[in-house]
Amino acid sequence: MSGIVIIGAGECGVRAAFAARAEGFDGEVTLVGDECGMPYERPPLSKPDANGATLKPICTAEMLAAKNIMLLDGVAAKHINREASCVRLSTGEDLKYSRLLLATGASPRRLTCEGGEHAVTLRTIEDANRIYSAAVKGTRTVIIGAGLIGLELAAELVGRGNKITVLEAGPVPLGRNVPQPLAQRIVERHLAEGVDIVCNVEVARISSRAVELVGGQLIAADLVVAAIGVVPNTDLAQAAGLYIGNGIAVDEALRTIDTNIFAAGDCASVNFSGLGLQRFETWQNAQFQGEIAGRNLAGASGVFRPPVWFWSDQYDLGLQGVGQTIGKATAQRTLSDDAKILFYLNDAGQLVGAAGLGVGNAVAKDIKLAQKLIEAKVAVAAASLEDPTTNLKKLLKPAPAN
């Protein structure tokens, strides 16, 4: 009997399986995951405890059994036969489906320089354990890439007594999605903690003991970590004849060009009307898209709408952001303990993005309310956003007409 098959047993895939059941689907639901063991969350991998990598399960075997969801762990999907509506597994079995979800995620970019194989990446629990086992006190660690993951690792490893050098090809750290004023404060904290950050550099080669830059400079290294972003896992979809554009292209209902095949999470690129294909690499996006895709697999007709939220913890600083945070902020709110939130308005005066930085969860409440304001599409005054005595929750109600 065919049912729902979900390829990818991470946050997105697991959410989809439970959402399909919540929508009332009573046929077979099968999760196919190429890692052995129960599904686990990936964000904690860069935020270990004193004993090493933190393994935080997404669900338990009992939870899956209660919803009659079958998990095939340690099994990879090798080929999709769209005409026969089946997936060839690494076990040699053909798994029939009536609806298929590709939640295949993304893989770390690999260094292409000479000796790039000496650099480790961080994506799985095995990767994390390898890094933390090697990063004993006194280890000279070079992290290539000054994005969120690279700097989260830098914060963790310098605290373990490592000598940290972060190399960045771009002109500034955190240049991709963190507003410059907030990025600068994070960088200053890293420098104060003893982390060396070098921008505008290119790696020429890596040996077992050093990183050589273009120009000849050698940086001693006992451990090299590549944190240069990820690429969506699209090989399976491409081989099946699905359209690829910065990910597996889907409509706003997360459906591919094959009406029985959906894609969601890091691997999916959503075609928004008038905006083109957009892909989102956040934990909340994996949740949101997984739940929408799961319900649609079961016959619903939901659509995905941004914004999605992201966060990063470095030292005692908590960074949170939501929506479009590129360019100059329209308004800035200063909270207690020097926590700051930047707000971004469009030409209609509607909030489209917000990002904040403070100690611990100082900005968490306001960023959550900012997400609601973006979703509500109400016009707000910059002065109200700047005033820390103005409760953002009150701005959710549009002003009465004159």
UniProtKB/TrEMBL annotation:
<protein>
    <submittedName>
        <fullName>3-phenylpropionate/trans-cinnamate dioxygenase ferredoxin reductase subunit</fullName>
    </submittedName>
</protein>
<feature type="domain" description="FAD/NAD(P)-binding">
    <location>
        <begin position="4"/>
        <end position="290"/>
    </location>
</feature>
<dbReference type="InterPro" id="IPR023753">
    <property type="entry name" value="FAD/NAD-binding_dom"/>
</dbReference>
<dbReference type="InterPro" id="IPR036188">
    <property type="entry name" value="FAD/NAD-bd_sf"/>
</dbReference>
<keyword id="KW-0560">Oxidoreductase</keyword>
<keyword id="KW-0285">Flavoprotein</keyword>
<dbReference type="GO" id="GO:0051213">
    <property type="term" value="F:dioxygenase activity"/>
</dbReference>
<feature type="domain" description="Reductase C-terminal">
    <location>
        <begin position="309"/>
        <end position="396"/>
    </location>
</feature>
<dbReference type="InterPro" id="IPR050446">
    <property type="entry name" value="FAD-oxidoreductase/Apoptosis"/>
</dbReference>
<dbReference type="InterPro" id="IPR016156">
    <property type="entry name" value="FAD/NAD-linked_Rdtase_dimer_sf"/>
</dbReference>
<dbReference type="Pfam" id="PF07992">
    <property type="entry name" value="Pyr_redox_2"/>
</dbReference>
<dbReference type="InterPro" id="IPR028202">
    <property type="entry name" value="Reductase_C"/>
</dbReference>
<dbReference type="GO" id="GO:0005737">
    <property type="term" value="C:cytoplasm"/>
</dbReference>
<dbReference type="GO" id="GO:0016651">
    <property type="term" value="F:oxidoreductase activity, acting on NAD(P)H"/>
</dbReference>
<dbReference type="Pfam" id="PF14759">
    <property type="entry name" value="Reductase_C"/>
</dbReference>
<keyword id="KW-0223">Dioxygenase</keyword>
<keyword id="KW-0274">FAD</keyword>
